[in-house]
Amino acid sequence: MRKRLLLLATLGCSISWVPAHATTITIDLGPPGRVTGEKIVSFSELNDLPLSGQTLSLDLVFSDNGFVRLFKSTNSTFLLLPMLDVFGAGTINNPTGNGYLFDQAGNPISSVTSFGGSVTTDPGGEALRLALGGFFPLLADGAFPPDIYGAHLDITLPNDSTFDVIGGEIGLFPNASQPWHNHFQIGDVPDSGCTLFLAVIAVVLLCSLDTAIRRLPASQRLLRT
After folding, report:
1. 162 and 204 fall within a common domain
2. Enclosing domain of residue 204
3. Any alpha helices (H) in the chain, and if so which ranges?
């Protein structure tokens, strides 16, 4: 009997040490397309979450196997910034923790350490955004990064029950003033109709030129060749 109790106690301790799985939050980036300037996408899965100092393990995954594609001309300080919207009155600390962006296979692209510090609101209450961490994939070591399929975060929230989570966002910020450095892409984008139109025009011109040459007298064709 004593051995059985010892076995059950050991098993209970082992179960308590099993790490919790990450909570998956699906982010809808919208239809595929090229973007110039910033883009902010909302999510609501953490709404009404009490801020009690708990640690969250989050996987922010783009829906429909979507991704963010960066170009060689994209500004090197391109920032992917997950944020929480909270409302309350007083002083609240920023979340702390770490995380990484990942590619289609789930491999890390670049890591991040979240911001510290605190924010003080108006006495009557105020809505504000708390950054969960800033990712700069183009400043990471190694080759040009592959497409970004999501972000993993292990975040400890502030311990302040006077604040409530009212929303969340992911911000995509190229941080550039020149248009050619201020762009990125959402998903696969097919060739534009303009490219196809130019190709058709080129084929028509070549066919017309070949027809015109064939109509020339043989002597003139020899001179042209």
Report:
1. no
2. 191-225
3. 2-16, 193-215, 218-224
Residue 2 lies in a domain: no
User: Helix (H) and strand (E) counts for the chain?
Assistant: 3, 15
Quote the CA–CA distance of 84 and 73 in Å, as a whole number.
30
* Closest C-alpha to 165, from 54, 83, 50, 42: 50
Assess whether 197 and 179 both reside in one domain: no
Asked whether the beta carbons of 74 and 145 are under 8 A apart, the reply is: no
Q: Which tops the pLDDT comparison, 85 or 204?
A: 85
Q: Given a cut of 70, is residue 122 above it in pLDDT?
A: yes
How confident is residue 215, by pLDDT bands cut at 50, 70 and 90?
low
Characterize 78-91 residue by residue with b for buried, 16 or more Cβ atoms within 10 angstroms of its Cβ, and e for exposed: bbbbbbbbbebeee
209 and 180, same domain (yes or no) = no
Instruction: Give the whole-angstrom CA distance, residue 58 versus residue 21.
Output: 9
CA distance 215 to 179: 49
Q: Is 154 exposed, middle or buried (0-12, 13-18, 19+ CB in 10 A)?
A: middle
* CB-side neighbour CA atoms (13 Å) of 151: 28
Rounded CA separation 165/153 (Å): 17
* AA identity, residue 129: R
Span 5-63, pLDDT tens digits: 333 333 333 323 333 578 999 999 999 999 999 999 999 999 999 899 999 999 999 99
